[in-house]
Prior knowledge:
This protein is of the alpha/beta class. The chain has helices at about 1-5, 20-30, 45-55, 75-85, 110-120, 140-150, 160-170, 180-190, 195-205, 210-220, 225-235, 240-250, 260-275, 280-290, 295-310; strands at about 35-40, 65-70, 95-100, 125-130, 150-155.
Amino acid sequence: MLNVKYRPKTVKALVGNTNVKESLTDVLERGEDHTFLFTGAPGTGKTTMAYILRNELGINKENFYEYNMANTRGIDTIREIKKNSEYKGFFDQGDKLYLFDEFHRQTIDALNSMLKFIEEPPPHVYIVLCTSEFNTIKETIRKAVKRRCNHYELSRLRRPELILLLKRVTKKEGKDYNKIMNRLSHIADISDSPGQALNYLGKVLHLESDEEAIELLNDEIADTNTVIDLCNILVEHKFGKKAMWERCQKVLNNLPDDPEKTRAAVLTIMNKKLLSKRYSIRAAEVADMFTKPMYHRAALTTACFWLCFGPEEDIVL
């Protein structure tokens, strides 16, 4: 898969986030810092940055420990990690790197326990914290974490940056990107992240025509006409609240069982509406409700429900 094949392995290979690249390059050249905090929306490359640090620091794969804190919670886990970190790893210098992904999911006790660990890790230990919801952490802990880490806020790639990435990969794959610019532009429009863009590119790179490629891409993100119907209902907002919700229910029942694809399609449509001459505040409200990942169909349904009724509406069922 192209998103795996071309996942950046060095800071220099990154596209976008120029300020982060320059600062991180400087920090790595000094070689004094051992704790790093990466924040930003899903798909901005936080976990990728941890893998890049592993490569830049020359840490062996056997000495790289990755923890998804959504599945590994509690103070006992942190205590065990701290205990094991005292011992050097295998190979070369024995340096270790611990990645705590989505660490905001930890309990308060566990987060407090981590503070001493990230302030004074053993000299052979590097720590990377990644979170897409840093602001949900208790303020006192949040400030304490920032004081102890090099903090980098990652941003989504802008459309020109995504297209640049797609052109580079297309060229490396032996294709002339000038001949397929229509599909590259469409991929940039519908993608939330570099990984997703490269995944789409892999599906359509070798197709004969742009028309065939774009049709396949539209099928990938969702049943386009059904999503357009849903967006029109949510944006026009001209029905009564209950009537609006009943219309949404019918459309939601006809959507594919892949809420993330639907979410991407809605964001694409809202983005085009906001950048057109007929932009509206309502389009921004809809887009805002669809910015977070939707891994379960209930998340999609709930987002539409609140857009119909409003979060403070007193609803009588």
